[in-house]
Design a protein that fits this description.
The structure holds two protein chains of two kinds. By secondary structure, chain A is an alpha+beta fold. Chain A is built from ten helices and twelve strands. Classes of the chains: A alpha+beta, B mainly alpha. The interface between A and B is large, with 58 and 41 residues.
């Protein structure tokens, strides 16, 4: 399948002109604040009326049916896509206990398995960083070692810090997107519509955590390893030229389950729950442990909390 | 019900009823050992054939002396858990070996060994009950499965054992687009390592 038809499917036909339109304005948006005058906004609104969030249930169903047909041709197997909405009264939060993490990378590959990341070219949503104990760290994400590979972990004198999408309440990536292909859902998950993403990668430049990944080539997954239970905004197979990232396993967590990385962690370092529920384990962490967030000074307000339990 | 006075009486009745029933939902201050419902945990990770202990111990005299053992030799030799103050029968019940025994004399089953550990590791036990030490799987919004302390810590040598890590990510300069047949697409190394760990445990 050609690159274009790969990516276009599922989009309203107007998207071609939208894209051409954007070509002329993208630079202007990036440079200056977009003029949110009322008339302009209404023009844009009508222009974007078939955005995922504005589709009716019937329209969503039609899109999903078409995608399922395309996927089953492409992968020669049935892929189930749901578009389950946020559960009212939930705001998801995540906790990571750095005094437990041993840097074993089970989470990285459980995420790959659950979320259908490309095996080749390789895409990982989680990166585990290694720091020397006692050295300055935390906000020096770029300077950290991510290629460590000893015989056994943990290693004496080191600690480990997995980093993935921090699900910011104030996400700079969303603001950077010229097509509104990425947004924050009511349960706090920042999602991407892979059929709207034009691959400009502004969001990647805007993310202070390096959490977004780009499909430089056509993603490839062995057929027998496909996870066929998917969410439209989550782990459904992606296309070449689109951006992807952690969604707190939206396909699992909206069904009430724990994310895959929480379940695989052999040391129990990963915590997940509803920030609005005072009895959730994430609230317990926030109230009983000294939690911190990465690059707090940027005011991105991540819903991903790190702590040292002991 | 439209009349305001009527409604107030109804509210008062409801309040009285609530106060009456409340103790049912909030039983008196729970004791340390009973403040939690039974936790849903997978079965204890016994070695094959060792349980019930009574298959051998039923007719045996309990022997509290610290010594080299002719059976369970590895456990005794490797014992390293505050070892200078403790020995087997501080945790195992001398009379019925199929049970553990708390300091209070209360017996607990192996399915509830967390009570035993919780006696000395109170803060960790509290975190564990909240799902923060150790782990929960299943449903954040529903049925949760816990792990016993002994699923992660050998009670006789509790320090966590180092494990083999999975491979690091490829360096960006090594990621090249290449033609691959379906068989050549790399497989997820997780599946392989989980298989081998399962075999190792047996």
């Amino acid at each position: 399948m050609s690159r274009e038809s790969d990516r276009r499917s599922g989009r309203p036909c107007r998207s071609i002109s939208r894209r051409d339109f954007l070509k002329g304005t993208a630079a202007g948006i990036a440079g200056a604040a977009f003029p949110f005058g009322s008339t302009i906004v209404s023009v844009w609104e009508s222009f974007f009326q078939k955005h995922f969030r504005e589709m009716s249930q019937d329209e969503i169903r039609d899109v999903i049916e078409r995608l399922q047909r395309e996927y089953s041709e492409k992968f020669d197997t049935r892929i189930d896509i749901n578009a389950r909405k946020a559960i009212p009264g939930t705001l998801f939060g995540y906790g990571l206990d750095l005094s437990r993490c041993i840097g074993c990378r089970r989470c990285v590959y459980a995420c790959v398995r659950e979320n259908n990341q490309s095996r080749d070219p390789q895409v990982h949503w989680i990166t585990v960083l290694r720091f020397k104990k006692g050295e300055k760290w935390v906000n020096d994400l770029e300077g950290a070692e991510k290629y460590y590979y000893p015989e056994k972990v943990p290693e004496e004198g080191f600690f480990y810090m997995p980093v993935q999408c921090q699900q910011c309440e104030n996400p700079p990536c969303v603001k950077a997107c010229p097509t509104q292909a990425t947004w924050k859902e009511p349960d706090g998950i920042v999602v991407i519509d892979y059929n709207w993403c034009i691959g400009c990668r502004y969001c990647m430049a805007a993310c202070p955590y390096g959490a977004r990944r780009f499909n430089w080539g056509r993603p490839r997954i062995p057929k027998e390893e496909l996870n066929t239970e998917t969410h439209y905004l989550g782990n459904r197979p992606r296309y070449v030229g689109v951006v992807e990232k952690c969604t707190f396993c939206i396909q699992r967590t909206r069904a009430g389950r724990y994310p895959a990385c929480v379940e695989i962690c052999p040391v129990g370092a990963r915590k997940f729950g509803n920030l609005l529920d005072p009895n959730s384990e994430i609230r317990y962490c926030i109230e009983n442990k000294r939690v911190f967030r990465l690059k707090e000074d940027l005011n991105t307000l991540p819903k991903f909390y790190y702590f040292f339990a002991t | 019900m439209g009349h305001p006075g009527e409604r107030r009486t109804w509210h008062l009745c409801a309040a009285a009823l609530f106060l009456l029933l409340m103790p049912l939902f909030h039983p008196s201050e729970p004791s340390a050992e009973e403040d939690i419902p039974k936790f849903f945990v997978p079965p204890p990770p016994f070695s094959e054939g060792i349980f019930p202990c009574s298959q051998c111990h039923a007719g045996m005299e309990a022997n509290p002396t610290r010594r080299e053992l002719s059976y369970h030799t590895e456990i005794a030799k490797g014992f390293n858990h505050a070892a200078d103050q403790r020995w087997c029968l501080d945790c195992h019940n001398p009379d019925d070996r199929d049970k553990l025994r708390l300091a209070s004399g209360k017996l607990v089953s192996f399915e509830e060994s967390y009570y035993l550990c919780g006696q000395c590791h109170g803060t960790i036990f509290r975190d564990w009950k909240a799902g923060v030490h150790g782990k929960r799987t299943g449903y954040w919004r529903g049925k949760k499965e816990y792990r016993l302390c002994v699923h992660c810590h050998n009670p006789h040598r509790p320090r966590f054992k180092p494990i083999k890590p999975l491979p690091p990510p490829m360096k960006p300069e090594d990621i090249k687009y290449r033609e691959l047949s379906p068989e050549e697409i790399p497989r997820n190394p997780l599946n392989e390592i989980l298989r081998s760990e399962r075999v190792e445990r047996k």
